Prior knowledge:
Keywords: Activator. By secondary structure, this protein is α+β, with helices and mostly antiparallel strands. It folds into two domains: 1-123, Jelly Rolls (Sandwich), CATH 2.60.120; 134-194. It has eight helices and eight strands. Helix 1 packs across helix 2, helix 3 packs across helix 4 (119-145) and helix 7 (168-175) crosses helix 8 (179-189). The model has no long low-confidence stretch (mean pLDDT 87).
Amino acid sequence: MKDVLISYMKQFSDLSDAELDRIASDVEVARFDKGTHLLHQGDVPDRCFFILKGCIRKFTLDEDGKETTVNFYTEEQSVTIFNQHTSDKTSQYSLGCLEECVLVVGDLSIEQEQYDKNPALEAMTRKMIEGSMGEMHDEFATYMSQTPEARFRTLLEKRPGLIDRVPKYQLASYLGITPESFSRIQKRLGNPQP
């Protein structure tokens, strides 16, 4: 499965296949069962992830116990909680596996050591983060300017596979609507049930 990682890294680097293979050979790949919590809200993140297979949900839990889905991550996406701007370094988010996941697991405590060992990795990582941040900003701007039905259409257009992989109530939360509104929109648009 590391070939998926190598293929992804090629998008952000002009390193040779041998150099990319060497970087990929240094990473940990692990399987996580469906339902596994990779990070709990309030914990200090110590790992980052790259998804080779599976789906991860990023969510928050308020004081009343209500969950709000912030994002979903699937194959060939990285998942890192950036919290260096906070004083206590704790995460405002939880990460949970919605499916069995095969993940590249990075240890944030040795990040600089990895960059020192593989100098090209730091530039490649920066390009990956810049790309992810740009996508996130675009998605947020689109989300803020759209009606719930337009958000639903955008979801179907940009991430069509999610509707078959994620529970309806979590998709509704992600879109900022109730499950009942989600069902009405879905019925109106004639889409199959997830």
